[in-house]
Prior knowledge:
alpha+beta, four-stranded antiparallel beta sheet, Bacterial Protein-export protein SecB, about 35% helix, about 40% strand
Amino acid sequence: MSEQENPIFAIEKLYIKDLSVEVPNAPQIFLEREAPKVGIQLQTGTQSLGEGLFEVTLTTTVTSKIEEKTVFLVEVGQAGIFRVQNVPDENLDPLLSIACPNILFPYAREVISDAVTRAGFPPMIVQPVNFEALYMSRLQQQQAAQDAAAAQAAAH
């Protein structure tokens, strides 16, 4: 195999693309003694930049509430530019949907913890995420939707 044919996967740049911190009910929320409920949402996006370069953005939204009152909301878009070359097409989507978010997630966790602390709350530890399981679940949902559409089309 020549040098040109070897698969290449490299991190070109890691950066925060978006960061938002909201404490809409301050200062009264700091007087609350009830433990808040925390919800976390994850979303990934991929954009081709041409010539084997891809931007992958992992958007993590953490919402903390006491009943209907928002304690804080932190959203971070942790992004990276990745060089991916000589990788078979069938391996490209898993690489961008699993490997890249796995690289970005620790950075997003650190930004969230820092933002929550700077907003005046105790440090928050975001638990690890299995991006492979999320990817497989998404593929199964897409396949189920395709199967349902095919069954519906066959029924007509």
